[in-house]
Design a protein that fits this description.
- The chain is an alpha+beta fold and 155 residues long.
- The protein is 35% helix and 14% strand.
- The protein folds into two domains: 74 residues, Ubiquitin-like (UB roll); 74 residues, [2Fe-2S]-binding domain (DNA polymerase, domain 1), CATH 1.10.150.120.
- The structure holds FE2/S2 (inorganic) cluster (2 copies).
Amino acid sequence: MIAFSVNGEPREVTVAPEVPLLWVLRDHLGLTGTKYGCGIAQCGACIVHLDGQPVYACVTPVGSVAGRQVVSIEGLGAGRIGAALQQAWIAEQVPQCGYCQSGQLMAAAALLTNHPQPTDEQVVAALDRVLCRCGTYNRVRRAVHRVARPPTKQA
Ligand code: FES
Ligand code: FES
């Protein structure tokens, strides 16, 4: 049995330790907001937070998260930055098909946690790890800056 925290709740699963965290979240815990895109750490659709840092759940063995804190897109809104990002996403009408947006939001939240006032270069670099076939990149950038800056200073 492997025990860890998901979105602040203690969870236990009985699976082989090499099973990717992505499949444990989706198939064992019913948290399907985290998406499968490539399975090889290339697209970012599966990004979750592990002890506050963004990781690709598709290549993270669940055995490696034992005793640690996982936050998925379902828990993002519980935090101040996550809730602000959700509002900014709505204000900027960011999503198109939506498939990459879980990863985009999780990557953005990690960026703003580590860099509350990121430069545009830092925003681009942090979000470069999430592919969007719909091309929402400019709206993602605007939404991140909307949260990073006081409203009166927005362009
Ligand atoms: S599914 Fe994990 S990076 Fe693409
Ligand atoms: S919104 Fe469609 S892939 Fe990003």
